[in-house]
Specification:
Length: about 80
């Protein structure tokens, strides 16, 4: 059935699954620091999917994709490290 769905629909389903995983981490995991770090990492993965597929960053010049991916990785690392400290 998933093969019959369009690419935006499949990306949307992946985003919803990642959102559900974030909720599970927030509500069920006892280790708060690990849960928050996991949620930040999931949010970064979701941001990458949105940038590449819905904002069509994957169709632009390669250096824009590299620049935004590096920016997202740096911001995510700063959030995770800052929270763990």
């Amino acid at each position: 059935m998933l093969r019959k769905l369009s690419l935006p629909a499949r990306i949307w389903l992946i985003l919803m699954a990642l959102t559900g995983l974030s909720i599970v981490l927030a509500e069920q995991l006892g280790l708060r620091a690990v849960a928050v770090a996991g949620i930040f990492l999931i949010a970064a993965a979701k941001a990458e999917l949105v940038m590449r597929h819905y904002m069509e960053l994957g169709l632009t010049e390669r250096y824009w994709l590299i620049m935004y991916s590096i920016w997202l990785a740096v911001v995510t690392m700063m959030l995770v490290i800052g929270h763990l400290l």
